């Protein structure tokens, strides 16, 4: 099997070209660990990351209606914005979070989610300022530190990003979302082996979700281990969601024909 090194242009170019998508996945849920329940919110039968397109659309409609009834409800607004981002409606997600932040100006979880929405809409510097403004030195939030790191990675300051992730890990050791962000930071900078180390550690945590495993699958696939990557992408999911993850994996690796190039290299080295 051919292992792609950190100097491979395939790794570097693919990592850079998909950085925004990958970090959006890494950021997902970073501000949802401690939602504020200011009223009743719709129930969900399954986690967002395991929903198919139709289920996500139906959930978005229900949460949208709940948001219209009570736009001050932080928990409803944050969940609705997350659904909008997952549906690719970043501008609308940002508009929702702007309103939620206006009504909850001192809520650090809300401000972290607002920063995430800003980053998703491409307003990276404003996102960084919002997240840092929400932080308090005497009681630092690991969610905010992790979100700050993800934005810094998108701004190209990976050294500062990793410092933020490590500070977050000091507060919440072994938290899979932080480990996943740290792993993706290494991938973006062309070091898939270090990325795999952190992502495997994240994926092995009992509270890791499918987005962490999807990132791990991508890193494994970029190193030429395609069957292993697909097995990871299919793990612990319904058939439809597993297939969607595999299609996502192939789409990421197909950029610049990287899947074909790596697979040909693998075949040539096994003959």
From TrEMBL:
UniProt xrefs under Pfam families: TPR_16, TPR_19
Residues in TPR repeats: 142-175
SMART domains reported in the protein's UniProt record: TPR (SM00028)
Transmembrane segments: none
Signal peptide as annotated in the record: 1-33
Keywords per UniProt: Repeat, Signal, TPR repeat
Keyword Cell membrane on entry: no
PANTHER family tied to this protein: BARDET-BIEDL SYNDROME 4 PROTEIN, PTHR44186
Protein name, as recorded: Tetratricopeptide repeat protein
Native source organism of the sequence: Pseudohoeflea suaedae
Taxonomic classification: Bacteria, Pseudomonadati, Pseudomonadota, Alphaproteobacteria, Hyphomicrobiales
